[in-house]
Structure formats: structure tokens, C-alpha cells
Design brief:
Two copies of one chain form a homodimer. By secondary structure, the first copy, chain A, is mainly alpha-helical. Chain A has a single domain, classed as Winged helix-like DNA-binding domain superfamily/Winged helix DNA-binding domain (Arc Repressor Mutant, subunit A), CATH 1.10.10. In chain A, 67% of the residues lie in helices and 4% in strands. In chain A, strands 1-2 form a two-stranded antiparallel sheet. In chain A, a hairpin with a 5-residue loop joins β1 and β2. At the A-B interface, α1, α2, α4, α5 and α6 of A face α1, α2, α4, α5 and α6 of B. Chain B binds a DNA duplex through α1 and α3.
Chain lengths: 149, 149
DNA sequence: GGATAAACATAGCCATTGCTATCTTTCAGA
DNA sequence: TCTGAAAGATAGCAATGGCTATGTTTATCC
């Protein structure tokens, strides 16, 4: 059809294949970690709010079934982010607390940034939940700068 | 630990459970559709640029193996987004073209917006790839408004 | 203290999305 | 034209993240 390869490239949306693949790889990598971050962040919130994080509460908040939570908690435990005692609640390890702190702060910055742009609180909350995991350090810093404008 | 339930709620990061679950449901729903959008957008780009969309090219761009692409194309075909002829390239249906158009435009707005915030083109490209699928119509409009500032 | 409800554990199922290995088809060049 | 390389098709495997059903433990309430 056409064979534009220089200035027109961006016009047809095709960057260099090498850089293109890198974006997708990064995105797939983010997609693998976002569930973990969601869990750890939620567990920290529940502990702060209720003093404990029970599977039923996590399941209710996430909108999934309790065995789904149980399976994921095993994964978090093997990754060293939480500690479990049978038939008891879960607790964050130091590593888990740190991940929760970083995730929560990033989440907060993203949500505040969207609100500052004039987006409604409800939409900002929903969009931030999805966007937060794909925001690099550089972009997060730009959001912070905008908030301090 | 504590039992703050009113003004302090946002401080401890716990909104109402009903709204909370809705955010996560929406995010999970977005996660299911984002791969489809990635494929359709890329297929449209390849057709515009090369006149055809071959499995090997799609695979190279996405950084996955060719059989992975073949499997996904079957899904896109059953969803009515593309047409396939054995041992030939793929073509977008009208529905596929429309989805590609919408995805591509949204992608462009997100990437331009990030650049306008002062983020480097490389980071903007990577982050936009992940963020675009989680941007609601309202947020997209806010990005557009900012770009027209 | 014993019954019952709630919470957690576990087994087993399914769909998705990746992979390698291998077969079939197409196509270009000698 | 024929042959070899490249592209697509297909089979089969693994990990992930959902689910239901059901068993086990804990906690609560007479």
C-alpha cells in the first residue's frame, strides 16, 4: 500500500520494532505484578482500618471468591510479602509493608492528580485503580510536580 | 486498632466496600479487553504501514511467539473483529476497524498528554501503552482539554 | 459445654495466555 | 519446474487467576 519509513512513521503509528516490543514487554511485566500490588495495598488498608485483614474481607473488597484470595495469599507468602497462620488473619512482612507503602503512595498521587485535572472523584478512583500500576517513576514525578503547581 | 469511619476514611484509604469492589471489577474487565485492543490497534498500524498484517510481524512487534499470535487471531476472528484466510494475512472487519480507530486515537491522546506534561518521549510511549486501556471517556476528555490549554 | 454459624483450607474444574515442537502450505529463485 | 526457506497451522504443555463444592477449624451463643 505504502512504504513510508521516515518522517511519516509516527503518522501511521509505527515506531521502530525494537522499541515497540520493549513497551509491550514492560506492559506485560506490569500486568503480572499489579495483582500483587492490589492485594498488598488492600491488606495494609484493612489492617490500618480494622486491625486485621481477613480473607472474607479481602474477597468482598476485591469482588472475588474466598478460595481465590486463599490461593493468592499463598503466593504472597511464598514471595515473602505476608505471613500466614492457619485459620488466622494475614500480616505483612517488612518487605510487604514497604511494597504497600510505595503502592499506596503512588495510588494516592495518581488519584489526586486525576482529581486535580477536574475529573470527578468517582471516575478518578476507578481510573486510578487501573492506571497506577503502569505509571513509571518519571511519570509519577511529573504528576507530583503538577500537583505542586 | 482503630474504628474511624467518617472523615478519616480516606486517610486510611478505605472507601465504601461497594464502591471499592466496583473499581476492581472495572479494572479486571479492562484487563480482559486490553490485549484485544493491543492486537487490533497493531494490526491496523501494520496494514496502514505495510499493506498487510502477517503473524510473524505481529509476533515480532508484541514480543511473543507466532503460535501465541495464531491463537489470539482465532479469538479475534470469532469475535468478528478480523477475517482470516488460511496461510494468508488477516484483515480487519468494519467492527475491527472501528475498534482500532478508537483505540489508536485514545492511545495517541494519552501519549501526547504525557509528553505535554514534560515526560520524555520514551517513557511516555511505554507508560501510554499500559495506561491507555484504563482511561475512561471522562478522563480522556480531560486529557484533551489539557492538550488544548 | 455443646450446637451452630462463620471463616479458612483444599480439591478439582475452566479459561486465558504464554511457550516449544512439529507439520503443512506458500512462494521465490536457481 | 522444482526445491528450500519462510510463514502459518496445530498439538500439547505450564502458569495464572478465576470458580464451586466441600471439609475443617474457630468462635459464639444458649
Amino acid at each position: 500500500m505504502n512504504d513510508r519509513t521516515t518522517a511519516d512513521e509516527t503518522h501511521v503509528g509505527l515506531v521502530d520494532a525494537g522499541t515497540h516490543v520493549e513497551s509491550f514487554r514492560q506492559t506485560r511485566s506490569n500486568r503480572r505484578t499489579e495483582l500483587v500490588e492490589d492485594y498488598v495495598e488492600l491488606i495494609a488498608d484493612l489492617i490500618d482500618h480494622d486491625g486485621e485483614a481477613r480473607q472474607v474481607d479481602i474477597a468482598q473488597r476485591l469482588g472475588v471468591a474466598q478460595p481465590t484470595v486463599a490461593k493468592m495469599l499463598k503466593r504472597l507468602a511464598t514471595e515473602g510479602l505476608i505471613q500466614q497462620r492457619r485459620y488466622r488473619g494475614v500480616f505483612l512482612t517488612e518487605e510487604g509493608k514497604e511494597l504497600a507503602r510505595v503502592s499506596r503512595e503512588r495510588h494516592q498521587v495518581v488519584e489526586s492528580f486525576l482529581c486535580a485535572l477536574g475529573i470527578s472523584p468517582e471516575t478518578a478512583r476507578i481510573d486510578a485503580e487501573g492506571i497506577e500500576h503502569h505509571v513509571s517513576a518519571e511519570t509519577l514525578e511529573a504528576f507530583r510536580v503538577y500537583l505542586k503547581r
